[in-house]
Amino acid sequence: MVSIVSDLAKSTLEKLINATIEESRYICCFTCITDDFEKERENLIAKKETWEEYARVVTRRGDNIRKDVTHWQKQAKELIEEDTKMKVKCFFGWCPNCIWQYSRGKELESKTEKIKKLMECNFENVGITRDVPDIEYHSSQNYISFKSRKLKFEELFNALKDDNNYMVGLQGMGGTGKTTLAKEVGKELKKSKCFNQVIDTTISNTPDIKKIQDDIAGPLGLSLKGYTESERPRKLMDRLTNGDKILVILDDVWGDISFEEIGIPFKDNHKNCRILVTTRDIRVCNKMECEKIIQLDILPEEEGWILFQKHAALSDKSSKSILDIGRKISKECKGLPIAIVVIARSLKGQTRKKEWDLALKSLQKSMHIPGDDENWSEVYTCLKYSYDNMKNKTAKNLFLLCSLFREDEEIPEELLVRLAIGAGLVEQIDVDYNYDVYRNEVIVAKYKLIDSCLLLNEEFESVKMHDLVREMALSIANKEIVAVKTSNKNAMTMVEKGKNIKYLLCEGKSKDLSSLKFDGSKLDILIIYLNEMEDYYVKVPDPFFENVSRIRVLYLSNNTYKESTMSLPRSIQLLTNLRSLLLESFTLGDISILGKLQGLETLELVKCWLVELPREIAKLGKLQLLKLNDCMFKRNNSFEVIESCSSLEELYLIHEGISKTSHKVHLPNYQRFCILDFSCFFMTKEFFARNSLNMFMADEVFSKETFKNLVQKAEILCLNGLEGVWKSLIPDIIFPDDDEVDPFPLNF
């Protein structure tokens, strides 16, 4: 018994001694513990700065920071702010306070372990892609809640709230404001939490199924990229019927659309999904079996006058004579919102009475258009006045050019620039040709058209036309501008019989397009969209280009899911008048024949596969702009050719692995440039619209002079892997004291 007690006491004493030694370590080794903490904290500071830089990149890209990353940053901040300076406390003024040292040493060691755990965290991605904006982004900022519209707003709102209505129709003539009302009601339905998501997509007279699917999937956070045509509708259907309350607005429906082909659920299996259809034709609502149909009429005269005053910037302080004429002009617009807005915008800022008199007389003439109803004649007269009153000739040319594109198609600004300059639509400014000056002329013209409501402003600098405005533009063009689908036999017959076609857009199968026969003697612009192919080879027969030898702009685009091979026929060298050439999504192989096109000013290749960038390109003495976007080269010698292009003013080189060169590249001082390596981490949409440089070891790729010029002129700059003296020189080159320079990452 005594032995057991003795052994127990011995064991307890040993544990006590060991514990005492262990605990005393916090006092005896306090300095070492503090040093360890400081060392780990320095490592944490470096890692935190790195992740914060990535986070800034994600934010600028428009994405959201992951919550676990935010939590990690918060923990790291707290540990970094820990104060380890020795706060000596004494016991009655004689010796250090051992109790404080013990407590503090234990605390610091614990926090050192926390730092080590934080250092072990590695996030594959810092950000989460932000969902595509839904109806809240797209709704109108200029919506006016008139009494007549308020009643329709409430009627539509209540109809969509009613669970008994799967599909609701909103019908009215073109230009009455159906789209605006639908979006405003959708915005309010989401705000009041009647629906989790409200999404809108434009159907138009020629539905683009792929675009409609992407429009619906985007705001839902669903990516359909990589799925086949048969898989896409199933994926979308699954998402729309997963239980969330979702309202889908199908805007501008003209006829039959296949819900099954798109991926929209049917009435008997819609779960919480609802559909709102806007259309001009009430028969569309009946055919689609809408449970509720709401008709939107034109504005009463007084409400039309209020709308007119808003957009013409009239008030009680305006001249009485102008107010009197303004009311008469508003009355001539027959209560149609689009006509009222367009006319009012065209007169905004006009202070002379004679200008208002002239507008009134022009509208009162009410030109009749054969074959069209009375309403369209009146609308046409209102819209055409705004066009006729446009003083800027480039803007008028650009307006007609936009009508070439498909109904409701969003037209990128840079594509308009290529077409307008290539077709010679910009008035000659001076003898010295400068591409950037002409681009600015096109952009200024674009904004004049937007301000006049003849064009609609869209995301990412794009524009589109209201369908009524487009019809008016095509009427003005009088069959000189034609956009057709090859499947439409009547339209194709019109093309084949046409004698005065200046701009032509064809969409359809490759075999139909290659066999197209028409009089191309006056053709300036030819755009071809291939949306269906019988095989993987596109054959362009030699006689095709013989027929259009005077064209100034050629744009060929493969819009299918297939990789397609296209060999350029020898007859392409007959296009001696060609100024702009754009080729998209083709396997081209050898393109050395393009060296024969001595008039070429812009060459743009997007997602193309080539053997190499041929040296013949350097012989194009008028080449102002070269764009190689996401192209693949069997032999990567792009820079060797590019630096020999002596007339080049703008360079857009965007693909992976551009840092691989065998020598230092010397480039001239370009007016505009965008040089991006896809393998770099930092990438935003801003890169493509501004002077930008983003690549690895740029100082190793470019000569000293070229590198300095690019860095000084870059508006967005991301440099990775800089070595040597350039690290220290960069701050001096980029003028850090300049308040107008945007911040950018420099990753060494």
TrEMBL record:
- Signal peptide positions (record): none
Domain NB-ARC, by residue range, is 153-313
The alphabetized UniProt keywords are:
ATP-binding, Leucine-rich repeat, Nucleotide-binding, Plant defense, Repeat
Q: Which Pfam families match?
A: NB-ARC
Name the GO terms of the biological process aspect: defense response
Q: Does the keyword ATP-binding apply?
A: yes
* MF GO annotations: ADP binding; ATP binding
Q: Which domain of life is it from?
A: Eukaryota
Q: What is the similarity comment for this entry?
A: Belongs to the disease resistance NB-LRR family.
Annotated protein name in UniProt: Probable disease resistance protein At1g12280
State the organism named in the record.
Vigna radiata var. radiata
- The gene designation is LOC111240528
